[in-house]
Fold each of these.
Amino acid sequence: MASNPRSSIGDMHCNATALRKASRRVTQLYDDAVAQTGLRSTQLAILVEIAHASEKPLTMAELAAVLVIERSALGHTLRPLERDGLIVLQEGEDRRQRHVVLTPKGKAKCREGVRAWQTAQERFEEVLGRSEANALRSTLLSVAYNDRLTKLKD
């Protein structure tokens, strides 16, 4: 059963607050699982997205769109991965375009991270239930990729 030390009226009515609280809790779980690899769960998610696009490397803009993150914030997040030799940024067709590519070291770190991630995934599904976790993930992804939720003006 979930512990709730102190609930507020905002918990009952604000979707954004509830999502942030849940996100922080789940991030703690996944960060704990992948900590042994030297990665944070957010970094592993980036490596996994890059790995899935290995046939045609993603541009920075494409990766930002897939991750639902501002391009400038993505650049900040990629710096430690580049510094540690896990990714390289390659010029695209024109100088403004940069492709994000996993290095061999990055591919190995990604595989290591996914193995550690599996522990958190199993715990989450054990606590929530496998079918409930699948339904929640589907709902959350439909929210994440719904352009109508970007701004109030259509």
Amino acid sequence: MALAVDFAAHVLVVRYLLKEEFGVYSYALAIVLLLSTAVQLGLPETLARYVPIYRERGQRGRMVGAVIVSVGAVAVAGAACVLFVLGLPDVTASLLGSAGATAVLAVLIFYVPLEGVNLVLQALFASFGRVRLIFLRQYVLLPGLRFAVVLVLVTQGYGAMFLAAGYVLVSAAGLLLYTAGAGAGLGHPRRALGSGVELPAREIFSFALPVFLGILLILALFGVGTVALGLLKGPEEVAAFEAVLPPARLNQLVPSVFAVLYLPTASRLFARGLTSDLRNVYTATTLWMIVLGLPGLALTTVFAPVFVPTVFGERYSSSSSVLILLAAAYFFSSLMGPSNNTLKVLGRLRYTVTVDSFAFAFGSVLIVGLVSAAGAVGAALGTLMTIAVRDLALQMVVRRSLGGGVLGGDYIRLIGGTLLVLAILTAIQLAFEPGLIVAVLLSGAAGIAMLVSARRMLDVEGLFPELGRALPRFLRP
């Protein structure tokens, strides 16, 4: 539901703002998202690992110290970004090459420290099992407030500056909610202070560094593409790329959900030394991600020529090819399975850092070069190629780590079935050019058909018994 609300808000913004104005706003927003990811320094993930350990050991002072180190580092890095943009406006304008984007950035920049601290506190609450609070912020408060901002924008005739200010205030509201719940998460910090706070900075940052290097890949793939478009091509090409990025991310939804199911299972099997069972879970999880991701892939690739102009308007028709490439990029990660998470479970951080570092350098150069040659389409193609190189490299390490039997015959057969379904849908699209509603129905029907035909190889009851009991009888093997 939250995904639908956010997507509806995005569609309203794209259709309401002029294409150039949306491009300016997207350019500034992309820079802010780059900075907000960078200033986190991998600390939310690190805090989520160490807080439970300190709690288990009864090290309250060390736990509070880890929170202080993480929040302080993110806040200082975020404040430095704010001071740079506001204190050196001429330098910022020369770097961006756009006066409009610089003006919007001067408002949006406050999002950087706010969101950074938000995510650190979210990791803290996740460690304490405060799922309800996280759910309230992520899936109720933020989508609702963002949608309200967009409604005011459209109905009152405001522009990009209002939208930027509204999104900053929404992030501030989320931080207020998390701050109110921080006391319950930490218990009584004064008791910890009284017993002596330890600041485990070295331990925290030694783990955060490889995590942060992995995050840089995301910066290269999507943020660098947008920034390169803004610098080399202008706001309209930025808009052509950014408009279709949210629907392309639909193909990331299934892997994100399955990570929640996969990580605990894989960790338990690794701790017990059951490598063969871990191989089976890895393969079956990959099969599930492919099957469940098929409807979104079909809608955003085969039916992209009808999806884009219907949803975003005819002025974005040229973005259909951009959506196809970005959707394929996201889905490629599903094809390769949860390789990155598996290597983290196995403790092979050196390999992930090496692969991610290479992908970051390779992707940055490739995307900038392709943007110069082909604009938004080049940015999307560079993203797809970089993800393919990175995930293939991780898959090779997984195979070497887990041994033979990873992604065997069932995987090959499922890939063949997926290609056949996409070919049939493509023939229907070319012959009949169905409308968006029919395209959605055909994509959903294709997904159900694939799920039924592949139900024996998915082994849902063996992998996830709780989910298996909830499935309809016709989906059980």
Amino acid sequence: MSGLLRWLRSSLHGEVSIADLEARRRAGQAAYGLVDEADSVHGDDRSAQLFRLCAWNAFALQSIVDNLIEADATSDPGTAGYVPRSTLLYVGACLDEVPNWIMQARVVQNDPTARPAGGLPARLPAWRHDEPTRPSELHGLRSAYEVLQARTEGRVLALPPEQTRASVELRRVCSEMKSAAEYAEAIGTRHVGAVDRGEARWRFVDALQHAFLLGQLLALPTLCEAARVRQDHDEHLPLAEHPSWLQIGPGWPVVDRDGVALGLVYRVRGDRDTGEFEGVDVAPSVGSADVHIPPAAIETIGRGEIKLSVTKAEL
């Protein structure tokens, strides 16, 4: 089909050209090689974990872009190179972030002290739904989800049976991911109306967001703390029985294994972006020197109190 006929056909369908995205799309496909490189990196030191996380983010975003564009072309080859405006806005927003994550992957790979910019865990762009959802968009979102699911769900299922805070959070996110996708699949069947297609699209985007998050948590397990605290905050939940270190506040009392008071928390040390905990500093009394409590010496974090696994003398 000639370019003119393709343009006329796409105009009748209300579609817009992706020509301005193609150069960035081709450049972003470097994310596929990057994620394979990251998967081959051995070790769980901070640099390796952050490298895998940044590579995953670039890969996930690029996969969403390519699957949405390819699904639209497959659905109607006569308008290949043109997509619905909602698709264009979404893939454009995703493409904007791909080179940033590729760059940050190289930075953290060579500098173990680097901190990824933009905050972690990262979130996908919002879908701007200024027109009815097309079946081709549902196909593209489903295909993108299947790509991300294939790289995450199996690793969660292979987790050891021990119930750690990280494993519980990973299984929760995985369950929510699958539930959103299954619901989208159930209502996004053929010949449904615009309202149901819109609901299915929202659910698929939600499933993609959970898959995107899950890949980050698997790459950097300490992020599970940050993700859990963020969800509690977003849902306005009260402080849990065993809060995260991210919720420790100045003035919390610290007691040793025998219940002897050591003082009050003066400073909490750690990286709130990555969830890496480095302990707390305790002020035994006014004017006295701070005492640093490493994470290994903390037995439990309760509601407003920290109990150690060692005695005051051992500390």
